[in-house]
Amino acid sequence: MSKGYSLHIGVNKLDKTHYFDVPELKAAVADAKFWKAFAEQNGYKAKKLHNDEATASAVLTALADYAKLLQAGDILLLTYAGHGSQIGNDKVTGLDNERNDQTWCLYDRELLDDELFEAFREFGDGTRILIVSDSCHSGTIARVAKSPKPSASTSPPAWKTRRKCAASDPGNCR
């Protein structure tokens, strides 16, 4: 019997030490509350992350926990309401071969689409993820994996995300 799980992220306020001149939103948390209630009414086991709870670490940890929990046939409903942005580059990089990475503006920092993609790759075969992203620049927040998750017997992929490589060696990003 398949099971439904859900995570609802709503960010009205951003940490002003990390973001400057970004206006506070009025309805993002209300939207996340709506989606959580909707999910619970439909039998999903629902969790929420609102405002200062919605850090990059909290979101990635929750996704990692769900990746371990969900079995084939299970579904994760992932909703995000808040600011979105993009980080540009003068050359094509990242997992989606674009000049820009789309981001969710979480409380403490922007979460790149490449980071979400890496988290989604950890989900087992036959699990499903439905994403509702209510933000600007949500173009490649969700996409289908182009290659299977590497197994322990294979070498890790040759690519690096911009998040990981930008600090160490930006010229080596692929």
Automatic annotation (TrEMBL):
Instruction: List the InterPro entries hit by this protein, alphabetically.
Output: Caspase-like_dom_sf, Metacaspase, Pept_C14_caspase
Instruction: Enumerate the Pfam families for this protein.
Output: Peptidase_C14
Gene3D superfamilies on file:
3.40.50.1460
User: Which residue ranges are recorded for the region named Disordered?
Assistant: 143-174
Where are its TM segments located? none
Q: Where is the Peptidase C14 caspase domain?
A: 17-149
Q: Where is the composition biased (Low complexity)?
A: 145-159
Protein name listed in UniProt: Caspase family protein
* Organism (species): Chitinophaga caseinilytica
